[in-house]
Amino acid sequence: MSAFRQTWEIARRDFTQRAKSKVFLISTVAIVFLVLSVGPLLASATGNDPPQEIGVVGDARVGFEEAARAAAAAFGLEVRFTEFASVEDGEAALRRGDVRVVLTKDRELVWNQDTRQVLTAILNTAVQSLERSETIAELGLTPEEASALLSPAALAGRSLEAPDPEAEPRRIAAMVGSILLYAAILMFGQFVMLGVLEEKSSRVVEVVLSRVRPDQILAGKVLGIGLLGLAQLLILSASVVFMLKLININGVNLAGIGTGMFAWIVFWFILGYGFFSVLYAAMGALVSRQEDAQSVGFIPVMLMLPGYFFSLIASSDPEALTVRLFSLIPPMSPMVMPIRASVTEVPVWEIALSILLILVAIYGMIRLGGRVFQGAVLQIGAKVRIRDAWRAAEL
User: Fold this and answer.
1) Which of 59, 170, 384, 393 has the fewest CB atoms within 10 Å, i.e. the most exposed one?
2) How far is it, in rounded angstroms, from Cα 78 to Cα 52?
3) Alpha carbon separation from 253 to 93, 161, 315 (Å, rounded)
4) Which whole number is the average pLDDT over 71-80?
């Protein structure tokens, strides 16, 4: 069997073993279900507000309803009116929830419990507009004079830059993407470490090494679990984009923002996982007991945390000097660059340099981590020191 085929068989075994585990299946189904169930809730929350029911005691003044509708339109709302013969009838409708507020003949607004400032402003504007019109009629002003009094010239205004309605959604998506990327690299990197540790402690690795080389085991585990992580990430991405299509916000293409964000996440997950998975595999080879895994697993986490923190900063201030620096320098760049690139336009040369540097770092980690893995994977028993593993590896 060729070396490639042997490596692929190891990758396929790890992929299948982890994919069939209850933890993986339940977590994947639960996440997708949660995402898809949140979609309709967000869609209803971001949809158009329903018409606001307003009660009026007695006959409404002529022109009141038209004035109130015009004022409501300025807030993007629709209002409907119900007339009541008495205040008691209006209060009974309030308690039943048939109307939101009742306007009495004495210009009093009656609420059931909570007040709403927007409705208060709408009704105040409508009543005051009618009173001004009546006063103008009593003064005998011409239509031109009345128009100038009721609608004075508004202040002119301009913006140096057109507002971007997608800026805030992109920032929120970047923060979510940062958390997701960190969690994905951490989880599947630990899968690699635990897989190496389980096979070493059960001595299965000794049987496998009788047929394949240590570098093939390392490559197979990284590839198999990486494909599993990529599959879960793609499933999650598809469910989130589908959910975003249900949400309608004027001037904002949420599905497009989500698609662009996840494209960056998937691409940089491959690069970030390529670096940290080899490191996790080397750390897993240094120990033989589950109790020792936490101590060595702390090393990759310490390398990831700065990148995670600066990725959160990048979501709100992508042009900060430290953010630009860490978006280029591995191993922080896989965490920072995708978030920065999704919030602002990053020069092509910076993206290219960041990719080049992380590829160089991955190659270096394969050489260094692979040697530690080779020197430690067969040493059963106590925790192996990195120096001893390095010396034990074949030159």
Assistant:
1) 59
2) 6
3) 41, 20, 18
4) 78
As given in the structure block, the two tokens for residue 369 are 């981590």
Query: 371 CB contacts (<8 Å, ≥6 apart)?
Result: 389, 390, 393
Q: Whose structure tokens read 């770092």?
A: 361
Residue 275: closest CA among 361, 178, 353, 197: 361
Are 129 and 146 in contact, with CB atoms under 8 Å apart?
no
- Residue 197, amino acid: L
Residue type, 208: V
How far is Cα 7 from Cα 224, in angstroms, rounded to an integer?
9
CA distance 333 to 344: 16
SS3 161: coil
Report pLDDT digits (tens) over 315-368: 888 888 999 999 999 989 999 998 898 888 899 999 999 999 999 999 888 888
Q: Where do the structural domains in the chain lie, given as residue ranges?
A: 3-34+168-392, 52-150
> Residue 315 carries which side chain, given as an amino acid letter?
S
Nearest to 288 by CA among 183, 205, 367: 205
Query: Which pLDDT band, with edges at 50, 70 and 90, does 87 fall under?
Result: confident
CATH of the domain spanning 52-150, picked from 3.10.50.40, 3.40.190.10, 3.40.50.2300, 3.40.50.1100: 3.40.190.10
Q: Is the pTM of this model over 0.85?
A: no
What is the mean predicted confidence (pLDDT) over 4-10?
A: 82
d(CA 230, CA 266): 7
Q: Which residues of 91-117 are buried (b: 16+ CB within 10 A; e: fewer)?
A: bebbeeeebbbbbbeeeebeeeeeeee
Q: Is the pLDDT of residue 374 over 50?
A: yes
- Rounded to an integer, what is the distance from CA 307 to the centroid of its chain? 17
pLDDT the model gives residue 62? 67
pLDDT at 189 > cutoff 80:
yes
Helix (H) or strand (E) holding 54: strand 52-57
